[in-house]
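Q&A log
Question type: sequence-to-structure
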Amino acid sequence: MKILMFRPTYYPEISGGTHLGIDLIKDLIKAGHEVVLITPAPWRVSEDIKLKYKNMKIEKQYNDKLIINRVYISANEKSITSRAVRMLLLTLGMSFRALKEKNVDIIMSHSMPVFIGPISVLLKKLKRVPLLYLESDVVSESVISTGIAKEGLKKKLLYSMGKTLEKISLKGSEYIITVSELFRKRNIDDGIPKEKIEVIYNWIDTNKVTPIPRKDNILFDRFQLDRDKFYVTYCGNLGLPQNVEIIVDAAKGLEQIKDLEFVIIGGGVRQKEIKQYIDDSNATNIKFFPLQPLEEVSYVYSLGDVGVVLGKKGTSKNGFPSKTWTMMSTGQAIISCFDLESELSASVIEGECGIAIEPDSPEKLKQAILEMYNNKQYAKRCGLNSRRYVNEYFSRKIATRKYINALEKLVSNKNIMNGDY
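Response status: OK
Response body:
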């Protein structure tokens, strides 16, 4: 089958879902299928990479089994309005590319950019093919949990618009894959038939992402880090849902421990803001580095004795930080500063992978770090448990097979129904 797939980012832009997209596409091609990928050109990357892909309209990979259409939009993301304008322009550009594609058997859409779901509903009617919708984010909830809009009319309008876009996408899809049980339950409560929703958790390829012994980790030399110290790391997106400031505050309160250091490796819309917050704190035990190449992911997440997962209160309602499985795959002990009732916190506790604390509390984070630091054998044991846990429950092979089965079944049903969409 030929799949027309939308994704919010793709390599060489690195985001929490980059490896998921690569893995799924590879496994689809391995299963004998073709993929036409429509995605924004790399944006949060170096100027050299951005320039390279600016005019690259089409790229072919895997013996032409993957055709990548990249849409370049230069609008900035300095405000809510500018981000919305960029998303709208991206959606128009991506839609135009999709319209030109012929003989596709199915569309696989995504919850980001926010307008692409409803556009995909229109496209599937025009092309008379089924639509599979991947709900990895819930925009309406993010308006509340991330503080994108303050109290008042603006917040109500944004929330209402988000709910409307979600409703169109969900009801107009033949099948929905969502990344958490919480999302599934909410959709059922909103009237979506339960038989058209499947939960497939994000995964990690534990054969590719592995623990790197400290003596072999090239980043210690690149970043000039002392291999004898105890490290707490945060790696990933610096966006609105991540309250990275609490790491800075916790680090400031632990400056007196000379062999304890903090490393932040990240990028995103709040990168300059976070760097400024670190500078203003005058903390001497924090080092900041930009995102590293995707092929070095094992080195990045093996850097710390403890890895921190962050999310403002309520964040679990609109997303699931898939990088947690990456951290666990490298054998990191986890401190989860996330909603305690979330599936993420439950996984950390169930797998005995670390400590789960409530979000937004620098003091509780500091105490959790001290607990790990003062009992290094406990931290090491949590790291071993992390690796075991993802191997057992979140393997790539099982997850991508579920996606492939869902796509194949939809196309088979379409053929039986003679394309009645």
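Response note: The first helix runs from residue 18 to 30.
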